[in-house]
């Protein structure tokens, strides 16, 4: 090697090391590195694309690529940085869920009949990211119609969990969770109506935030294409490797509806507390009438141990006066009713109608509510909606005594791929105190649905791995429109105990 080549070689090595160190950095850390000139936006983009090229063949997370525009946007970001411009995500590579429109790209939600649905405009979410300076690499995989706990479809195929390729990263924001966990990007935006952000975060060891209902405009996303009305119960929110990035992204996604912005703008209240020890926490460690799995026990145990070690005041439901905690079982039946009536979809087929006709008039089970939901009358929907608002008031009363409610996210960690149909009849292995038994598809929605019905914010946060080496996490539920409180709670736990861990085989130097 000649001495003349030495400076360039050293510089290239330093740049490579800097990029490698940023593979699992937060979006905020990547933005700082760009602002300080330690790396260029184009170099960071090429590093992300190279990681996708290397690892995504097995994972299949980023299913829609926009390399040419991303490179143009990265060059523009470098020029802006050179001029001294600063934006929260200037030059930072990101992905978005496939269901969000991005100008020039196809939005299919995994349905073959929508492969010609090419977006003419950016969705509100994509526009917000671009305005913050982000470089949108492409879009991440989803289940067919966004209606599964896994992310596979006939258009793009199956997404696997980087922690174990034989397992799912979850759904419906599973592709995005896999992309962030594998170090392709630091930030993704997904949607959540039944745990679609929080369950993938739990399955892959990430942070995920389901925003308060109505807080983030979802214009330009979902089904049917071109819809103007927001889907009842559904929200958007970020997935990231740090709680701080959730807060950063949340701020960028607010106030994106141009019609509402004529008169109304949201200013979120600050977190209720700046110290972990000041939080008042309710820990719900088991669903009423349902035996907890060993995974749920592990999650609750880790949460309680950490709260105790930090001197945090916490209680369990048994400690509460009667009537303070809303009736979770009745709430879940109502959730199933409004969830099933929230989509624009065909009426039940003949088989479903036969099961519906066979229901006893007084059957108030979860299954009965699910069957009745798609065809309830408008009068019945209005009555259910009124009960929803009564429930929100009950939660508001509870949040006078507590700052966050912490629960499991799902009854198991990531489970093996299962393409069997119908999905409602799938059986999932779960370990209980007396051995292994099976759960139903519907059993995964107790915890996930808890904050959805009253529209509450919920932050999923990692708690390490279980005995099988799979990530597990919990969720912190906060008061409506106080999204920064559960995010702050997760961040303070992260400060004390750490948070995201890179899956084996994808870390620095991989």
Describe the structure.
With 510 residues, this protein is α/β, with parallel strands linked by helices. It has 2 domains: 14-262, Amidase signature (AS) enzymes, CATH 3.90.1300; 276-343 and 351-490, Amidase signature (AS) enzymes, CATH 3.90.1300.10. Helices cover 35% and strands 15% of the residues. The chain has 15 helices and 15 strands. It has helices at residues 6-21, 27-35, 41-59, 67-82, 124-131, 174-181, 198-204, 243-253, 294-309, 328-340, 350-357, 366-372, 378-401, 446-449, 484-497; strands at residues 62-65, 93-97, 135-140, 152-153, 157-158, 187-192, 207-210, 235-240, 280-283, 313-315, 404-408, 427-432, 435-440, 458-465, 471-477. Strands 1-3-2-6-8-7-14-15-11-9-10 form an 11-stranded mixed beta sheet, with helices on both faces. A two-stranded antiparallel ribbon has the order 4-5. β9 (280-283), α9 and β10 (313-315) form a beta-alpha-beta unit. The longest helix has 24 residues, at 378-401. It is globular. The model has no long low-confidence stretch (mean pLDDT 94).
């Amino acid at each position: 090697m000649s001495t003349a080549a030495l400076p360039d070689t050293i510089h290239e090595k330093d740049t490579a090391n800097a990029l490698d160190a940023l593979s699992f950095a937060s979006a905020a850390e990547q933005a700082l590195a760009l602002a300080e000139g330690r790396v260029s936006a184009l170099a960071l983009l090429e590093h992300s694309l190279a990681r996708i090229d290397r690892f995504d063949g097995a994972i299949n997370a980023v299913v829609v690529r926009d390399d040419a525009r991303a490179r143009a946007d990265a060059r523009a970001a470098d020029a802006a940085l050179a001029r001294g411009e600063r934006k929260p995500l200037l030059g930072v590579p990101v992905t978005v869920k496939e269901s969000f429109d991005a100008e020039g790209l196809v939005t299919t939600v995994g349905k073959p009949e929508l492969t010609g649905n090419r977006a003419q405009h950016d969705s509100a979410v994509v526009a917000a990211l671009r305005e913050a300076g982000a470089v949108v690499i492409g879009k991440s995989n989803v289940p067919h119609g966004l209606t599964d706990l896994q992310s596979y479809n006939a258009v793009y195929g199956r997404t696997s969990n980087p922690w174990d390729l034989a397992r799912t990263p979850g759904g419906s924001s599973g592709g995005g969770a896999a992309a962030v966990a594998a170090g392709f990007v630091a930030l993704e935006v997904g949607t959540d109506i039944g745990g679609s952000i929080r369950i993938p975060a739990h399955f892959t060891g990430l942070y995920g935030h389901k925003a308060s209902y109505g807080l983030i405009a979802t214009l330009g996303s979902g089904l049917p294409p071109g819809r103007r009305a927001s889907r009842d119960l559904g929200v958007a929110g970020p997935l990231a490797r740090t709680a701080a990035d959730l807060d950063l992204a949340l701020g960028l996604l607010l106030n994106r509806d141009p019609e509402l912005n004529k008169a109304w703008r949201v200013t979120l209240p600050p977190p209720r507390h700046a110290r972990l020890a000041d939080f008042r926490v309710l820990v719900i460690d088991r669903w009423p009438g349902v035996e907890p799995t060993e995974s749920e026990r592990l999650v609750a145990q880790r949460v309680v141990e950490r709260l105790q070690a930090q001197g945090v005041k916490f209680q369990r439901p048994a400690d509460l006066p009667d009537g303070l905690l809303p009736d979770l079982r009745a709430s879940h039946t109502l959730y199933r009713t409004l969830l099933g009536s929230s989509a624009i979809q065909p009426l039940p087929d003949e088989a479903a109608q036969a099961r519906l006709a066979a229901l006893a008039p007084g059957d108030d089970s979860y299954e009965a509510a699910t069957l009745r939901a798609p065809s309830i009358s408008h009068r019945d929907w209005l009555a259910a909606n009124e009960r929803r608002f009564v429930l929100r008031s009950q939660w508001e009363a509870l949040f006078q005594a507590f700052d966050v409610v912490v629960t499991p996210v799902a009854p198991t960690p990531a489970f093996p791929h299962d393409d069997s149909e119908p999905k409602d009849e799938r059986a999932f292995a779960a370990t209980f105190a007396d051995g292994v038994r099976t759960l139903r598809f519907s059993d995964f929605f107790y915890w996930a649905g808890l904050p959805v019905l009253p529209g509450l914010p919920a932050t999923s946060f990692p708690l390490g791995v279980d005995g099988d080496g799979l990530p597990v996490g919990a969720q912190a539920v906060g008061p409506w429109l106080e999204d920064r409180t559960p995010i702050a709670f997760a961040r303070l736990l992260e400060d004390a105990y750490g948070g995201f861990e890179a899956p084996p085989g994808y870390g620095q130097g991989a």
